[in-house]
Fold this protein.
Amino acid sequence: MSGALDGIRVLDLSTRMAEATGKTLADLGAEVIKVEPPGGCDARFTPPFAQDGRSLFWEAWGLGKHSVVCDIDTPEGQGQLRALAVDADVLVESFAPGHLADRGLGPDDLAAVNPALVYVSVTPFGFDTPDAAVPMVDLTLSAAGGLLAMQGDHDRVPTPVGYPETSFLGAMQAAADAIMALCERDRSGLGQHLDSSIQAAVMWSLMSITSYAALGQDFPGRGDDRAEVTHPEIVPGLRMPFIEPCADGYVGMTLVLGDQGNRGMKSLMAWVIAEGALDDDLAEVDWERWLEMLGDQSLSVADAGRALDQMLAFLKTKTQAEIQEQAVAGKMLVSPCYTSAHLAADPQLAAREFWVEVDGALHAGPFARLSATPIAYREAAPALGQHQRLVDDLAPIPAAKAPSKVWAAPRGALFEGLKVVDLSWIAAGPLITKDLANLGATVIRVETEARLDTLRWIPPHLPHTSPMSAGHPMANMNQSKLGLGLNFTIPEAKAVIDRMIEWADVVVENYTPGTADRLGFGYNHVRALNPAAVMLSSCMRGQTGPEARHTGFGLHGACLGGFTAITGWPDQPPHPPWGAYTDFISPRYALSALGPALHHRHHTGEGQYIDMTQ
């Protein structure tokens, strides 16, 4: 089977800051031509390096690309790039604003050559802003986006994620945006210039923080009061367990998160009790109701503290593998803080055949499984100029001989006419459909009245109003949508959902695997009602594999994904990235899978299923 972007040609002029953009498009089947200066792109000289001197960064992010040398500082090279642009669909660049325009290769210049070209500029602060020329590094971009201030131990200066990640946030947003622009081009026939700001992408990784800013507040303990807070407390005097030691490393845990937290606490304490590690009087406590009991004082703070101390002491005797096995079976909100070595040996990734071999080297594999147009890896990162024939066979186009510029009349919204049923909750799912709604799609968000979305209770809330209807995070992550409340368990509600599925172009859900089938809107049911629908399921570890039903949220995704283990101070336990981290980075990957599926559907009429792992 061919990739979803088969037939799409991409010119990749990016610096290492946006290599992920072109790599993602290549993963999805596009022909990506890396246009390099005579000495090679900077990604080829980016550590880490293999023993033979090869850049492993380039080996990873150059995977699947073709390479041509084109000196755009010369008239000949500029003409060659114009010639390449004639038949290109997308151009990606991350130079300083104005760099390409000064060489006659800016967005307007190449639109004159090819009005259908989607021209993507990935910059730190935007293409045409007061800060456009401000120098940056990853650390300063994290600070400018608001993420750095939220991270690290309260009694020390903020710490960034242990690997420079902000450029990846911007590059992945740019990939998603480029693909969505191709979907619009399917309708209009015309390209456009995409101005992709890394700072803006970082800000969408802040969870509820922008909501506090809207109320003129700082998140408690992360503003001027940072040093005054030593550790979050469940109630005064009772420390909230977070990143805790085990026998061979650390685990991240969430004990307070609505019904999911309560059920996870019950399972965790049942394990502790079963192995005789909890005092007899504490073993009699109904641990699913422990927060309620703290509230009505039927469980004292002292007894709760004693129980938590014994539970944490018990976990110190267990390995990460033992804890993970119990967490999956008991739906505990506990996850090991994996290192890269753990990831290489992870049974869930192995079961899903995540690691792929290309030319004898092992690479990270598909971020999503597309049923009709699967991601495939066929070519290793190219040698410099390996595909030079692609440019040598073209006659350069001088700037003076470029065709006249052609633009269409003003167009409608990018996804105008697209119909989406949003059956997702909390953050990872709603953020996917938020972008679709903001780009013009009609998105109907369906909630079950039997169990309200946990996001509704997350602060801040408008003062003097019901939290259920006045939460800033809930509103922020569900912009531009229509809302519908149903009781999923009654036949009348199922009939309504079926009618919406028949109406929809896209169906999105992010429940634990198996839940959608049980509730009557799994993919087999969706396909039977509407074969042309594209359905996307997003979950922690994917729909298949021995740990598919692992319950978790963004903290646990950061632990399992290796982010937590590399972040923090050497003399302290690791500290995870801020908030529900993977809930806020995975939607960009989801959109990068959903857009190509819609592009494929436009050309073939074929729907498909996307299994998206966070």
